[in-house]
Amino acid sequence: MSQTAFGEKCGFYQTYLSRIENGRANPTLNAMEVIANGLGLTIYELFDRMKPAPAKGSGRAASRG
Prior knowledge:
This protein is mostly helical. It has helices at about 5-10, 15-20, 30-40, 45-50, 60-65. It has one domain: 434 Repressor (Amino-terminal Domain) (Orthogonal Bundle). It is globular, with a radius of gyration of 17 Å.
């Protein structure tokens, strides 16, 4: 789906979505909920999907004596 189509679905301008995507805008929690709903997710599911993956090798150095 294009940013324009998604923006129309959510009620946001495409330029605003582009700024969010590129890290130049910080959406409010309300805006994040609208975006999540537009994706067919709850805001909780959206944030859960945004969790960074654990770094490879994390925890190994601490276990070495």
